[in-house]
């Protein structure tokens, strides 16, 4: 194996594993910046994964290669509907954000498996035929050295997610909507005084996280898992949550730390194909992503600073 | 809207939440044309209809009580300890390993040895997160999530590659602990129709009493709660927030570790390879969210939870209704508990004597202020 092939392998598998994390972590940044803690990303991803797989199995023959993309979109829409539960509970009904988010995590797997059993009469779906697969950028893939590493046989959803993170950074920090959303998370009283509809902004934050979390789950299911069962989404939502905090509640930060997690995760999977690493006992590679995260967090970041009013219910005075 | 006294309202809101949760389950079943009456009756029948069913229900509740206590101690100090599965797993493997390695010791030495070592293992795992939080300000949500996976893979490595081969049946399963290292009590199992109930339930009840005593009657508990409510005021009053952060995490992890110990020495009698984070960790968190800060609440919540879980298995076999419906019911109940403010709107409080209302309002206002302070502190 020459150097470029090894690098290409590492980059492409990093992108494959990062894509779902980036989408979901981006969703998380919007929810938290609006002031609603969302630990329910895991549950939202589960619903997105379930929806996309059912859609993919049912409509693969109709839509062909567009199926996974449509499935991801539908997963996002179901994510919105599911996250509505969290939005209503925390914005209108004064629920504790962490408990309400945990409810999403507790509710999604049994609900999805129940529906799978009701639809297919078994606890796990078939494998899908139309998955995201690998994508080569026409033109870019032919650039020497850089082409094969970054643009040939790579993950299309990951590149969409990376571009999206830059766009969402712009939305959050350079638009009126973004400013209003952030002010609802920093100081809802002041925002309300200035005529901003805090409840509306918080709904927007949670629903955006539902949409992107649903897409994240769908991307994971349609690019990596290939089917849906109770263990399809096992911890990715929590990793995305960690990536969002790690990325300091900022879309680009969330994207970069998702790439880091994706890299660390893919190392333990492709490690035995890389000379030098393959001789290590597998336990080191397995725990490496998690140990590295803690170390990086302690050494480089210390205290992470969230929006000031994150996690607090805003009760409008009458 | 129904007029009730404030005290009745405090009782009614959780009851309504539980009923509403069952209703949600019933509606979902009706939509998919299953019979909810048949489902719930076969559920209660299999969980409570026989000595064996009751024994299994209690058996299921035992580790959850410990883990729920662990979760509540950390949340009293203002932490979201999401590392319950890892802490329980550390306790489980440690207890079984010691039970197997020191098989020859008499029961009155071996059993305490296993239990203490198991709880220390849990405390160690949680203590890492507490130490990082206290001295580096590391967000405990991230560190405990990461620790879950570190423990998961580390346990796999320790049990498959480090543990002496003679202690294992095959790569994935250890031998079972002997009678001197087990929490099973023959007459108790016999009384409950040969179920896997163990002496762990007595330990759980002791743990509940300790929890109540710790939080309500001791300085340690008072300081933990004070730091959780308002770290600045506590520091001003001479309490060390660093010390209390670490103590609360150590205690939290110790109780979670004990949850793993009773699961190992009581339920399974051995350790086997885990592929995902431990279920009892997440179930214990559900119980804690249902039961709230009170010892009685945790006990009742753990029993309700276990009736649903054990009954759900029977429901699946007897009535052919997917087991998952009970988990949906549990999640729905927790949801209604979470929105108790909205559920409470159903009931209007009767005008009671003025001072009580005044104190109650002052209390909520104080708590709100404390929350603001705490948030400010984190920022």
From TrEMBL, chain A:
Highest rank taxon of the organism: Bacteria
Keywords of this entry: Cell membrane, Membrane, Transmembrane, Transmembrane helix
Subcellular location: Cell membrane
Chain segments annotated as transmembrane: 34-57, 69-91, 97-120, 132-150, 156-173, 203-221, 253-271, 283-302
InterPro entries (UniProt xref): ABC_transp_permease (IPR001851)
Cellular component GO terms held in the UniProt record: plasma membrane
Membrane topology annotation: Multi-pass membrane protein
Protein known as: ABC transporter permease
């Amino acid at each position: 194996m020459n150097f470029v092939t090894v690098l290409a392998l590492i980059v492409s598998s990093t992108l494959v594993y990062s894509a779902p994390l980036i989408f979901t972590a981006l969703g998380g940044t919007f929810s938290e910046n609006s002031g609603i803690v969302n630990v329910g990303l895991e549950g939202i991803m589960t619903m997105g994964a379930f929806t996309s797989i059912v859609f993919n199995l049912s409509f693969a023959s109709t839509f062909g290669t567009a199926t996974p993309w449509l499935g991801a979109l539908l997963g996002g829409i179901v994510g919105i509907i599911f996250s509505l539960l969290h939005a209503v509970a925390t914005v209108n009904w004064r629920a504790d954000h962490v408990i309400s988010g945990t409810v999403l995590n507790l509710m999604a797997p049994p609900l999805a498996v129940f529906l799978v059993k009701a639809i297919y009469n078994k606890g796990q779906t078939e494998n899908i035929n139309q998955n995201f697969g690998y994508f080569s950028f026409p033109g870019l893939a032919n650039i020497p050295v850089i082409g094969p590493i970054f643009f040939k046989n790579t993950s299309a959803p990951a590149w969409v997610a990376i571009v999206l993170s830059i766009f969402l950074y712009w939305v959050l920090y350079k638009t009126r909507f973004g400013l209003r959303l952030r002010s609802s998370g920093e100081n809802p009283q002041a925002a309300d005084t200035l005529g901003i509809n805090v409840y509306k902004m918080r709904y927007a934050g949670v629903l955006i996280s539902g949409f992107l979390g649903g897409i994240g789950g769908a991307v994971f299911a349609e690019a990596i898992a290939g089917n849906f069962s109770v263990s399809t989404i096992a911890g990715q939502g929590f990793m995305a949550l960690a990536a969002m905090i790690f990325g300091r509640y900022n879309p680009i930060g969330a994207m970069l730390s998702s790439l880091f997690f994706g890299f660390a995760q893919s190392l333990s999977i492709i490690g035995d194909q890389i000379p030098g690493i393959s001789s290590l006992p597998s336990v080191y590679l397995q725990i490496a992503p998690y140990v590295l995260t803690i170390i990086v967090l302690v050494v480089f970041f210390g205290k992470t600073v969230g929006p000031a009013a994150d996690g607090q219910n805003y009760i409008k005075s009458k | 809207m129904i007029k009730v006294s404030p005290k009745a309202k405090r009782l009614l809101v959780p009851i309504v939440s539980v009923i509403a949760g069952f209703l949600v389950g019933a509606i979902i079943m009706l939509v998919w044309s299953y019979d909810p009456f048949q489902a719930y009756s076969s559920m209660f029948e299999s969980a409570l209809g026989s000595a064996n069913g009751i024994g299994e229900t209690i058996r299921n509740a035992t580790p959850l009580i410990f883990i729920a206590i662990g979760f509540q101690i950390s949340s009293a100090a203002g932490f979201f300890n999401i590392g319950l599965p890892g802490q329980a797993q550390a306790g489980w493997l440690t207890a079984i390993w010691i039970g197997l390695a020191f098989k020859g010791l008499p029961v009155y030495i071996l059993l305490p040895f296993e239990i203490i070592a198991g709880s220390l293992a849990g405390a160690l795992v949680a203590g890492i997160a507490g130490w990082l939080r206290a001295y580096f300000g590391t967000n405990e949500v991230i560190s405990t999530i990461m620790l879950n996976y570190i423990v998961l893979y580390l346990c796999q490595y320790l049990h498959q590659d480090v543990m002496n081969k003679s202690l294992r049946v095959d790569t994935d399963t250890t031998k079972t602990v002997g009678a001197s290292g087990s929490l099973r009590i023959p007459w108790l199992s016999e009384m409950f129709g040969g179920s896997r109930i163990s002496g762990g339930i007595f330990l759980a009840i002791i743990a509940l009493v300790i929890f109540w005593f710790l939080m309500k009657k001791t300085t340690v508990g008072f300081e933990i709660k004070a730091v959780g409510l308002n770290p600045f005021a506590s520091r001003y009053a001479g309490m060390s927030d660093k010390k209390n952060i670490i103590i609360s995490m150590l205690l939290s992890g110790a109780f979670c570790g004990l949850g793993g110990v009773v699961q190992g020495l009581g339920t399974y009698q051995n350790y086997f390879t885990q592929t995902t984070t431990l279920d009892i960790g997440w179930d214990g968190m559900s119980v804690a969210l249902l039961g709230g800060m009170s010892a009685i609440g945790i006990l009742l919540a753990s029993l309700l939870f276990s009736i649903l879980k054990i009954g759900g298995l029977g429901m699946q076999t007897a009535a052919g209704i997917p087991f998952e419906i009970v988990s949906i019911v549990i999640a729905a109940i927790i949801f209604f508990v979470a929105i108790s403010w909205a559920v409470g709107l159903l009931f209007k409080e009767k005008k009671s004597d003025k001072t009580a209302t005044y104190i109650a309002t002052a209390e909520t206002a104080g708590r709100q202020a404390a929350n603001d302070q705490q948030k400010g502190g984190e920022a």
